[in-house]
Structures are given as C-alpha cells and as structure tokens.
Amino acid sequence: RPGLALCAGCGGRIQDPFLLRVSPDLEWHVACLKCAECGQPLDETCTCFLRDGKAYCKRDYSRLFGIKCAQCRAAFSSSDLVMRARDHVYHLECFRCAACGRQLLPGDQFCLRERDLLCRADHGLPLDGPA
C-alpha cells in the first residue's frame, strides 16, 4: 500500500517502498517511528509499545506507565517476584515493616496503614487478631 498510507508520526503520505505497521491501523515511515520519550529509532529489532497514539521503547514505556513498587517506586521486571497488600504491589525486598525494617514474609501478619506496612509487633495486633 505504499503511496496510500498516511504516516502516524508525521502525517505525510508514505510513498517509500517500505513502511512499518505497528498495529492494524497505524503505519509509519521507517524514519518516523521513534520513541516519543527518548527518540530511539523503533524498528524490527526494538520492541515498540503504543499508548494514546504515541510509540515508546520498552524502557520508557515501563518507566512511564508500568506498575511500580509501592515502596521504592521502581518498575518491576518480568522476572520479579512480588508481594501484594490490597492494591499495592511490592518487590520482595521492599515488603518491610516501616517501623522496624524487618522483611515481611508470606504468612506474616501485618497491617497496612495508608502506604506503610507494619509488622504485628509494631502495630500491636493481638495474638488472635486478624492478619
């Protein structure tokens, strides 16, 4: 379809022999497909992510839009194991009591007060209290 498609990046007609199709309805000049944040060229060798009509490299997309640890605010990698408390997600090493710093392990009783995790001892939960 060269000559008929409009570039999603610059809006110009694509008359080049090659174009890049990012999704079923978005086509780009090869030179126009760049990360909206860092400007890195995005092609068949670099994963491309779309958000609100803009293209991003994997690093910037994760940094801007990925789920972040409720404690350290860093993004998660696909191999990270996580702990969850209500709607908060934590790296394993970040899942610690805010008062004493003890790492909380699966099965430990804790309290979530706003964004702070508190172990049983620092929250003062009774021995037969809820987790």
CATH superfamily (homologous) name of the largest domain: Cysteine Rich Protein
Helix content: under 10%
Quick one: CATH class of the largest domain? Answer: Mainly Beta
Strand content range: 15-25%
The string of secondary-structure elements, in order, is EEEEHEEEEH
- List unreliable stretches of 5+ residues: none
Shape verdict: rod-shaped
Q: CATH fold name of the largest domain, please?
A: Cysteine Rich Protein
Largest sheet: 2 strands, antiparallel
In the CATH classification, which architecture of the largest domain applies?
Ribbon
CA-CA gap between termini: 61 Å
Average pLDDT metric: 84
- Major sheet strand order: 1-2
**What's the number of helices?**
2
- The total domain count is 2
| Rg (CA only) | 23 Å
What's the total count of β strands? Answer: 8
Secondary structure class reads mainly beta
Key words describing this protein structure:
Cysteine Rich Protein; single chain; two-stranded antiparallel ribbon; mainly beta; rod-shaped; two-stranded antiparallel sheet
Structure description:
- It is a single chain.
- With 131 residues, this protein is mostly beta strands.
- It has 2 domains: 19-65, Cysteine Rich Protein, CATH 2.10.110.10; 67-130, Cysteine Rich Protein (Ribbon), CATH 2.10.110.
- It is 9% helix and 24% strand.
- The chain contains 2 helices and 8 strands, in the order ββββαββββα.
- Strands 1-2 form a two-stranded antiparallel ribbon. It has a two-stranded antiparallel sheet with strand order 3-4. The protein has a two-stranded antiparallel ribbon with strand order 5-6.
- The termini are far apart.
